[in-house]
Amino acid sequence: MPKQKDEYHIGFIREVKQDKGYGFIVADGDDERRDIFFTYHNIKRWYTRTMPPAGKVVRFQLVPAGVKGKNDRAVNVEVLG
Questions:
Q1: pLDDT digits (tens, 9 = 90+) for 59-72
Q2: Which of 5, 27, 41, 42 is surrounded by the fewest CB atoms within 10 Å?
Q3: How many domains is the chain partitioned into structurally?
Q4: According to the model, what pLDDT value does residue 71 have?
Q5: Is residue 35 part of a domain?
Q6: What sign for the dihedral angle of Cα 66, 42, 59, 50?
Q7: Structural domain containing residue 5
Q8: Per-residue pLDDT, 2
Q9: Would 8 be classed as within a structural domain?
Q10: What is the DSSP string of 10-60?
Q11: From CA 13, how far away is CA 25, in angstroms rounded?
């Protein structure tokens, strides 16, 4: 999986914890299907108070583990479909 923050990646939302305001994305092409953490606050132009449902295709930037937290994080998440 690429580790560049400036690049955008495509993936899909694997799981959402609606009541907690976070979820996990799996990047396209990641054979290991590693979870990438994201929160409601990292979603761009999502104008509802609910999280997007699992299965939605997203575009995102990646912040590698260790920069902030122990897991990879998605920022600037855009819901595509």
A1: 999 998 886 677 89
A2: 41
A3: 1
A4: 82
A5: no
A6: positive
A7: 1-27
A8: 46
A9: yes
A10: EEEEEEEETTTTEEEEEETT-TT---EEEEGGGEES--SSSPPPTT-EEEE
A11: 4
Could you tell me if 74 and 68 are in contact, meaning their C-beta atoms sit under 8 angstroms apart?
Answer: no
Low-confidence ranges of the chain (pLDDT < 50): 1-2
| Neighbour tally for 2: CB within 10 Å | 12
Burial environment of residue 37 by CB neighbours within 10 A (0 to 12, 13 to 18, 19 or more): middle
Direct distance between the N- and C-terminal alpha carbons of the chain, in angstroms, rounded to an integer = 22
Are the CB atoms for 9 and 28 separated by under 8 Å? yes
Round to whole Å and give the CA distance between 55 and 66.
27
41 assigned to some structural domain: no
Q: Are 1 and 39 in contact (CB under 8 A)?
A: no
Checking phi first, is residue 14 left (phi over 0); if not, alpha (psi -120 to 50) or beta?
alpha
Are the C-beta atoms of 40 and 26 separated by less than 8 Å?
A: no
User: For residues 57 and 12, is the Cβ–Cβ distance under 8 A?
Assistant: yes
> Per this entry, what is the length of the chain?
81
3-class secondary structure, 40: helix
